Here is the input.
Amino acid sequence: MRRGRTRRRQSREKARSGANLAPAYITRKIPYVDFLEEEALLRIEQHAEHLLRDVGIEFRNDPVALDLWRQAGAHVEGVRVRMPDGLVPQLCRTIPGQFVQHARNPARSVMIGGPHTVFAPAYGSPFIRDLEKGRRYGSLEDFRNLVKLTYSLPWLHHSGGVVVEPCDIAVNKRHLDMIYAHIRYTDKPFLGMITARDRAEDSVEMTRILFGAEYLEEHCCLMALVNANSPLMFDKVASEAMQVYAGANQAIIATPFILGGAMGPVTTAGALAQALAEALAAGAFTQIIRPGAPFVMGNFLSSMSMRSGAPTFGMPEPAMSSYVIGQLARRQGIPLRCGGALTAAKICDAQAAYESADGLHSTVMGGANYVLHAAGWLEGGLVMGYEKLVLDADRLGAMHVLLEGFATDDNGLASGAHAEVGPGGHFMGCSHTMANYETAFFDAVLSDSESFEKWQEAGGKDAQTRAYERWNSMLAGYEEPGIRIETDEALLDFMARKKASSEDAWY
Here is the structure.
């Protein structure tokens, strides 16, 4: 009897955690939020065309990029590239409307674009935070822990990239350890590195070792994120990364990083037009390099405190931009990346909760296909939080349910249940409830919905404490997905040779 109860309890816990329930990615079954009418969308698109044609985009310190633009028909003066009417739309026609990023476990491969949504953890933080050790610089151990946790969290589909900077590893070599961790400790897809041309090339080469050179030539197995140096500029790091990844038929996500009033206009429409121009310029550039190379247009529009200059999150202006950029991306037929659970909060407090929830909801309802920073983001991106990661992941589970919608078939309408229960009765024990109760509602692992007395008897723990216990328990129970010995040896040999070829650099 006790063993039976234990098995049922374990089964319920497995269901609550999302194991066996979470898909490799989401295919939405509900409509998008279309925020603007046709006339307003056209005005934004026309202003973006004006920026590309009359103002132009700078590609600095990269003569190869300027030559490629010149050969494609753009007007190049110094480092300024002006694109005549029709050039960018013509080039962007070869961008795939959707594509697969292949994972080493085929069951984990994700579809980017169309009606699909992929969640990935936060990216790029130099600091890490947890309830016990507080705020500190990230380490390689932290990086590996976060990759393992992301692998173990069913509602995160993608391993991400720089989930935290491993600041105890030399700057010119840490990319090797990061890519290896994504390959070794998870079988979900991941992002490559871009901070120098050789680091982008190393990321592609390690992925070739994993998948095979011929397979990589024909399939997208790697994506990488570059940012525009808004306003209206790409530096050599971004343009060379685009050349490396697009040249290898791998995907580039190009994201304008605009804080309204600093790197873009304070008005939402003006900032959106700038973001569209920058993203389309990057998309067109990838197609000059290799027509048909996968590309994702990014969007990161944030409001700003006009008193301090600090970025603000969870505000109505960025929410509106998420809805509208989704409309614009669908009109272009190009996959879209947006931010997710963003907050300026320093810890997992009420501010973190409401800002992250508002940002995530607008991102999802606006139709983002790839949601970076979907979990873990704190302090405006300076900090990756262990507790924040698992708390956010609970909400991602809720987003899965939201995007699934609900059925209106006989079971969805509870056909026959009212006749069985009758007026004034209750549905707790009726046959329809008994047939559906295990999957009827999303059950968040970290939410406590028990009575005050039960909560108090269990220790009176707040959400952050429960999250701390959960991620520690997950790491204790982590099991590697396994990797072929020959592949692992080839990767380690490549890393050893690359590290031995140069002295450590810390800047």
Summary: The chain has 18 helices and 18 strands. Residues 268-289 form the longest helix (22 residues). The longest strand covers residues 295-304.
